[in-house]
Batch of 2 targets.
Target 1
Amino acid sequence: MRSTMAGAEQALPQTSQTAARIMRGGRVVACLIDDTLLLVIGAGAPVAGQVPAQVNDDPATATSASIIGWRLALQPPTATHGFAALLPINDADRPLTTLRLGQESSPRRYIFGPRTLAVREGVTVLAELAGAQLTDVLDSLVDAMMQMPTGRRRLAAIVALTQARKGSDGFLEFVGETHEGAIFLRGWARAADPGNARVIVCGENPVVADCGIATFSRQDTPQGGAGFIGLLAASEPLRARDVEGLVYRGRGGWRYASVHEHRLIAGPTDTPGHIRSVLLQTHSTPAVLLRLRSAANSFEGRETISTLPVPVRLGVDNIFQANSSAFLISGWLLDPDEHVQSVRLRRGQSEMRLDDRWTRLERSDVTDAFTDEPLFKSMLDRETHPHGFIVFAGGLGADGAAPLHLELTLKDSRRAFLPLTPARLPASGGLRQIKSIDPENWGLTEIVDRQIVPFLCASESPSPGVGAILDAGAFDEASGPPIIVAAGQAEEKELAPFLGLLALDPETRHAPIALVLHSECFRRQAGRIRQLAQFYRLPLRLMSAETDDVYDLLEAGIRALSSETVVLLAGSLLPRRSGWYGRLVSAYEESGGIISPTLAYEDHSVRWAGSWADAQSENSLSGRYAGYPLSAVTGLKLTRIAAASFECCIMPREAFLVAGALPAAISDTGKRGRISA
């Protein structure tokens, strides 16, 4: 008989042998969940709850084990109950010999099996030992583990425990991404409950996520099944193609729904439509339905503001992007009936509210454009036009792969979108924005201080430098402060007459001239300009720079020279008469500072003759000489002004080096202090 029994035991599968040994009592097996947690499976007297534990009879290992116990269906003389314990440990590499459970006065002592099992092996042993009670044991174990800190290995163990239930609880048939970072799921299950649930998203790296679940009726599911949709929000990025299943707590315990082999995966532009197609059939809690409705109304990569049935429209005229992902946006919002709750700039999961930080501007052109529109007719005030805005937005994040867009939210929670394509420009983009604003605008100071200056400060672009240098004349032998001429590609065709005017002026003909061009213009025009300079006998130095902005070209020229004083001149300007260079130099030698002459249009109106400060405070501008007839300022002598034009001026090179760059100096136009002129 003994020989027969021994032979029968040897024929059992290894897991059955292990379960049989445990049922003899006094023995346990251990599964390593991770470096700090063991799953211990054993049998003996009844035990459950939080129980004192000690490993290898070592008092230093004293801890508390979470134990789930159950009555054994087949009870050998030495054991009436099975148990599964979650045991914290400090040293995963330490050999396991003995386990003590219970108080010092009446401990129960167990001997560990000869080897530590893998989690899936342990789950098989647990199934053999628990029998029909496996479902309740698994649910209790998962409940306990979900209350603990969860790492990847613990989550993988929870998935293995849940999958030990016979069969899948359903399938995920659709997995879609949204621009906001949420993952949308659609499928069927037998035990899904409507509401918000904490779930595990299965995959190569399982993660914990919140899932808003809504259910709906389906005729094509097995008996007891129902359709469901879910919206996942995880603390770390998820991709639709990485989702392999879902572990969730439904009716009657923890369940597992796997991804169907013919699942459909959709990107952010397609997912909102799939949500809308089923949303009206579902039921859930109000909070979950609100989240799903918001996701159904999320950005699909197209403009939707023009389709709103309410009198609300939005437009963007310019959007500049600095190197640091800071933006300067100007545009308009028409909302005469105040339907708009917020306007946000969004990219992926990053967002920034704009309407609580922008500066509003008068935009009568917007009023005129919509006066005859049926939706706006009789709603617009012809006296006031506060529709324009300009705003600086910084710190949005650097997720360059996600599309940039404006999100407009109405007070009834509807959303509409406007895709944006920013122009990645240097800080001079902010200066162009200043030029587009009426100098008499009441909000000029706020625009400069709150919007333009922060954008320029965030535009940490590298200083422009000079590339190729070509001397077309005796530049080094010429006397006087060098004239740095910045000519962009727009002025390329006018270079010959411009050089002719400099040659006709007896003063500039002998002054050192540094002509700075865009590199492409330099490549096309260098030979021709050299011939002209030699023909006119101009002491000309030709330089190239990788920029077409006039201020960056001037800056490159300043940095490339070593003179104490420089004269700056934009290639778009033409001298009205000869002698301007000598008068600038004389005024500079007399008064120092930064000297800028009057600039005028061809119709003899003043384009620029300086800005003056308020009598009460030199740090705020109250006016500007612009638009006057030229005769109105010709009688002015050397006059102290608050800001000068760098398109034509003489200045100490050191002043530029201290300021750091021309755009930085100009950006503080409203608060410069005194500049001689």
Note: The domain at 305-458 is CATH 2.60.40 (Immunoglobulin-like).
Target 2
Amino acid sequence: MKKIIKKSYKILALILLSTMACTDLSERPYNVLVEEDLGSSPEVLAALTAPVYTRLTDLLYGWHGYFDLVEECSDAIVTPARPNGWIDGGVYRNMHMHTWNAFQSHPSGLWNRAYGSLNILNNALLNYQTIEGENIPVLVSELRALRAFYYYLLVDAFGNVPIVTEENLLTPDELPSQSSRREVFDFIEAELLDIMDIIPEEKVYGKMNKWAAKMILAKIYLNAEVYIGEAKYQQAIAQVDDIINSGLYILEPNYHTNFVTNNQSSREQIFSVIFDETRAGWFHYHWKTLHPASAATYNLGTAPWGGSAAIPQFIDTYEEGDSRFDIWIRGPQFSLSGQPIFNSMDPSLREVQLDYQNTMGSVDATREYEGYRVGKYEIEIGSVGPLSNDVPFFRYADALMIKAESLLRTGNADAAAQIVTEVRMRSFENPDDAVVTGAELMQGSRYQYGNYESGSIVSLEGGDDVQYGRFLDELGYEFAAEFHRRQDLIRFGVFTSKSWLTHRPNGNHRTIFPIPQPAIDANPNLNQNPGYN
């Protein structure tokens, strides 16, 4: 069992009372805990910072969490209607069909979890202003980097959001105003550049450091054309070059090392969210994807729910010999002792061995065996609850691929191909099969876009017209089920222009989500994003 950051619940309770703000600013604000209240021991300082990290587990994999938000709307993963349910009022269908509205639970989940964490984070920063110590500026820089991370998620998902800092807490009667996407972009950039010479360089597992901060910068620069209409690829290269030249990170020789149980030994992970089956337990994706009968394969203490799976068109793009394909659970299924296990929900299939097949009816109707299941993270044998795999949000491979894409988009396809080949090498037994050329990266995508019904494409659109589509394919193989796909599809112009499974394009405004209606109702300073009124 790994150690995770200890929390002082007494201190946390005091922090959470911060919403009870005083209106006489000449008096001491009682939502600020000064040094004589707390002291400045490492335990106290950890109690101020720990919640903003531990809450990331719920943000990423809580019910209708960030994973579902950015993967369910993509061309790779879907939660279709199943014989055992998963209709759920149409929320998953909405994500697949891009028909969500301002009441959709998935965007609301990100909004509420992010701003709830920012409230705690900003209170910690406000409290740090009252504590002296040589390590305080370092802790402040770490929290500011984490705050920039939260705003990176928000600006990517919603575009125009309020910027709330510790200064807002001193004017509690003023509801925050809404900032433009450019203003949020500029805030993230300025925050990270300002703390870059203060934040630690050394690796502290599960916490922000200089290199994680540089990854956030590289990400907003990579997506700057989407966010603010300006290309910043050279700036992205500069940030990841610093990470590459640090010598602190490597491509793990075995790709799957990044996703095993208690995977903190991986030298590829730049920023990871720590999960633990008993103390930080939100990682239950194996339940969401596996058929109930698959409990026998892993000796699970409870039956999975049998929901999400890979979209067949995405699976069909993989090259033969690519070991990254092994993240998908497929084919006939057996118990831990080697006995066949059987379908259970459809009376006509109860005597038929469970066999995950790469086919699917539609988002509205599937058989229980349809669709390969997500098995990227090792499922621990005998697990009785959530998994203890830590989730890498930024990996060294990501830094390399940011550089490769930036080179490709600035006319250096051959240099980009060298990097892509380096990333591919560990995933092919024959090194020659891993080599890709600049000319190939300039080609379209292998993905056969178009509407798909019951095993075949009924209106072929193809992927030949996707600029740099071959590179988009590579991102899909390397980062499948890693929070990437929505953002990548938007950057490559596919998200609102192509069809897959039952999805059809439904408006360019879908590149950002609506501001949740309850947030607008609570704050008259917020305006709904275009297209959702």
Note: The CA atoms of residues 254 and 426 lie 6 Å apart.
